[in-house]
Amino acid sequence: MNSMNEIRKNVKEAFELLDKVTTKVMNEHKSLISHNLTAKQLLILKTIFLEGKMTVNELSTRLDLSASSISQLLNKMEKGSYIKREINPDNRREIFVTTDQKGKELFEAYQKVDDYIIEKYYSKFTVEEVIVFKDLVKKLYGIVHE
């Protein structure tokens, strides 16, 4: 078998196994992380949560979505108390977006699940194996973003 076929075969097998791991873990913890957000809304919420405070334009640029589509998604999220919007006191044309109570609670639940997964599963690896895993993912990230 040539090297490209070998790479293809092994990557597909790894993806299939990762899908099975993700499905099992998500099923085990779905009650902790239940929400009614779409994938885009979850991505927006995660971005805001990690940044702390962002403008609609910053979100639009970061996520490569139009400001109007961001605003529509934010409307639904605001009604659900996942985010809140505030007018920038220094520039009244600018709106700051931050996480609201439900958004914070959701990410606290995700962090608990992450910690549980790390303790239950990744702790079975050696530190060296975890570093190799991280380095491979980091290398893949660099390749994808070239």
Automatic annotation (TrEMBL):
Q: Where is the HTH marR-type domain?
A: 4-142
A Pfam family found in this protein is MarR
The protein's superkingdom reads Bacteria
- Alphabetically ordered keywords of this record: DNA-binding, Transcription, Transcription regulation
UniProt KW Transcription keyword:
yes
Q: Transmembrane segments in this chain: where?
A: none
InterPro entries named in the record: ArsR-like_HTH, HTH_MarR-typ, WH-like_DNA-bd_sf, WH_DNA-bd_sf
- Mind telling me which SUPFAM superfamilies this protein's record contains? Winged helix' DNA-binding domain
Task: Specify the protein name.
Answer: MarR family winged helix-turn-helix transcriptional regulator
Question: Taxonomic classification, please?
Answer: Bacteria, Bacillati, Bacillota, Bacilli, Bacillales
